[in-house]
Amino acid sequence: MRKPLIAGNWKMNLDGAGATALARAISDASPSYGKIDLLVCPPFVYLKTVGSVLNGGAALLGAQNMSHEKSGAFTGEISASMLKDCGATHVILGHSERRHIYKETDADMNKKTLAAHAAGLVPIVCVGELLEEREAGRTAEVIRTQFDGSLAGVSAELMAATVIAYEPVWAIGTGKVATPQQAEEVHADLRKLIAERYNAATADQVRILYGGSVKPDNAAELLGQPNVDGALIGGASLKAEDFLAIAAAG
Ligand code: PEP
């Protein structure tokens, strides 16, 4: 059985006081969510503060991005070991905002995924199609290409520990949510692909999250799909009550 993972991506939002207050509200409630993993991903500069609030609580700490480089002259970049040093256990990689605004490629994602695993961080590798790709009937092809490009060279053992997030780009921050059937179709195909590339046991272990306008009122149906193992939440993760309501639906 895969344990559901409910992850909040705070993006470039909140200040120190806001991040602390949100972490405290989640941490206070989190002992009642023992059957699922909760994860929050604040901006880099608040990782330590949020981590200290979560300390002893049931929520995990993650980052939103990282460099694939270990150290050196890379101004403005943050390494995997720095994230670990700040208490992070997870890192979101290849979010559509990184892919589309900052032009990160599958090859970049691959280097980051390997570097995250090498440092002992769990990568949450995001994949997702654009609206025009869906409308052209290319969803499966796009997702499979992103998967293969981002995960090349990852062993079966590390694959089992990798989290995949299916985030249709047209559903992120738009209020347009994929139907539970649309989400399940892609998740099932991703699991089939993992079985093809690795084996059935590995495919059975990988957690595949759905992301894209998940809210308290649509969470139960999405999370009720057999291959949806949790959610990656943007906007609704900034309000503790909404984030926790989504977690309760898992
Ligand atoms: C996201 O940014 O990963 C996301 C899914 O955002 P939202 O929930 O706001 O659509």
From TrEMBL:
Part of which pathway?
Carbohydrate degradation; glycolysis; D-glyceraldehyde 3-phosphate from glycerone phosphate: step 1/1; Carbohydrate biosynthesis; gluconeogenesis
Q: Where in the cell is it found?
A: Cytoplasm
Q: Name one GO biological process term.
A: glycolytic process
Catalytic residues in the record? 95 (electrophile), 167 (proton acceptor)
Q: Which residues form a coiled coil?
A: none
Subunit structure as annotated in this protein's UniProt entry = Homodimer.
Record function comment: Involved in the gluconeogenesis. Catalyzes stereospecifically the conversion of dihydroxyacetone phosphate (DHAP) to D-glyceraldehyde-3-phosphate (G3P).
Which InterPro entries does UniProt cross-reference here? Answer: Aldolase_TIM (IPR013785), TIM_sf (IPR035990), TrioseP_Isoase_bac/euk (IPR022896), Triosephosphate_isomerase (IPR000652), Triosephosphate_isomerase_AS (IPR020861)
Official protein name in the record: Triosephosphate isomerase
Q: Which SUPFAM superfamilies match?
A: Triosephosphate isomerase (TIM)
Tell me which GO cellular component terms the UniProt record holds.
cytosol
Tell me the enzyme class. Answer: isomerase
Query: What would you give as a GO molecular function for this chain, any one?
Result: triose-phosphate isomerase activity
- Note the Gene3D superfamilies from the entry: Aldolase class I
Q: Which reaction does it catalyse?
A: D-glyceraldehyde 3-phosphate = dihydroxyacetone phosphate
The EC code for this enzyme is 5.3.1.1
Question: Which NCBIfam families does this one have?
Answer: tim
Output the CDD domains linked to this UniProt entry. TIM (cd00311)
The principal localisation class reads cytoplasm
Name the keywords, alphabetized. Answer: Cytoplasm, Gluconeogenesis, Glycolysis, Isomerase
* HAMAP family the record matches: TIM_B
Please state which protein family the record places this protein in.
Belongs to the triosephosphate isomerase family.
Q: Give binding positions for substrate.
A: 9-11, 173, 213, 234-235
